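Q: Here's a chain of 143 amino acids. Please give me its 3D structure as tokens.
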Amino acid sequence: MDAQLAVTEEELREVLKASPFARIYDFRLDFVAYGECRLLMPFQEALERPGGIVSGSALMTAADVAMWLAIMTRLGKDAPAVTTEITTAFLSSARREEIICAAKVMRLGQRRIYGIAECRNDQGKLIAHHPINYIRLIHQTER
């Protein structure tokens, strides 16, 4: 039996639309499940680095945003959680192509959240692998 999402797909689309930094990348929500999210990042010349390669920072941002939304599927859209660490292994280059980035929450603790994201091209070729750590913020009233 699947667990119930803490946020709807439409709410996640609204989060993307309302986030000025996310709009730069034109992310599109492709798939959502409990603790999982997959985004599409269309090719944009503005995200190219010299040599015609999609910039590494764009791949890292796609991974981070996909994880951010995956966490929301478990905790809701208003749960305060921020990235504390992201490590990226660039395994191949993406050249003038759409990127598909899938993230999955692997462990959701009381304070720390650990997940994995992977960026692939539309042929399924693995471009980058990203272990990501988040921390859940505690408000003063919760202490």
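Q: Can you summarize the key feature?
A: The radius of gyration is 15 Å.
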